[in-house]
Amino acid sequence: MLKEYLSFEDVTKLLDSAPSSVENVLAQDCSEDFGRVFRFVCAFSPHVCKQEFKEYRFESIARQGIRTHLKSHINDAKANYSEEEKKTFSTRNQLFKSSKNGKIYL
Ligand SMILES: [Zn+2]
């Protein structure tokens, strides 16, 4: 899934993909300090949400936190978005790297 922007259908498919794909695609990995601080920032509809999950030493806890958070975004969108909102939905794929410098931007 290497499109820069994902549609509503793309995002809902993440629920059926490998568990880690949810946060890999929809969260910014801001982990720092050589694996001692794990920090994931929600990038789902980035204009309204930038919730952060930070954990010292335990990557799995940070991942679980952001994953649960992102899944609730997706399930909320499935349940509450209008057809128009689903059609116009777009969110940035965090796996998509800019070809210029290889960095990931929100
Ligand atoms: Zn969020």
Summary, kept brief:
This protein is an alpha+beta fold and 106 residues long.
Q: Describe it for me?
A:
The protein is α+β, with helices and mostly antiparallel strands. It has one domain. Helix content is 38%, strand content 17%. The chain contains 4 helices and 5 strands. It has helices at 8-13, 21-26, 59-80, 83-88; strands at 5-6, 27-29, 37-42, 52-56, 91-92. The chain has a 3-stranded antiparallel beta sheet. Strands 1-5 form a two-stranded antiparallel sheet. The longest helix is centred in the middle third of the chain and has 22 residues, at 59-80. The chain starts with a strand and ends in a 14-residue tail after the last strand. Zinc ion is lined by residues 42, 44, 49, 51, 69, 73.
Keywords, separated by commas or semicolons:
two-stranded antiparallel ribbon; 38% helix; binds zinc ion; 106 residues; alpha+beta; 4 helices
Q: Would you spell out the secondary-structure blueprint of this structure?
A:
Layout: E1 5-6, H1 8-13, H2 21-26, E2 27-29, E3 37-42, E4 52-56, H3 59-80, H4 83-88, E5 91-92
Antiparallel strand pairs: 1-5, 2-3, 3-4
The chain binds zinc ion.
Strand numbers in spatial order across the main sheet: 2-3-4
How far apart lie the N and C ends? 17 Å
User: In percent terms, what proportion of residues is strand?
Assistant: 15-25%
Order of helices and strands: EHHEEEHHE
Which ligands, by name, code or SMILES, are bound?
zinc ion
| Residue share in helix | 25-40%
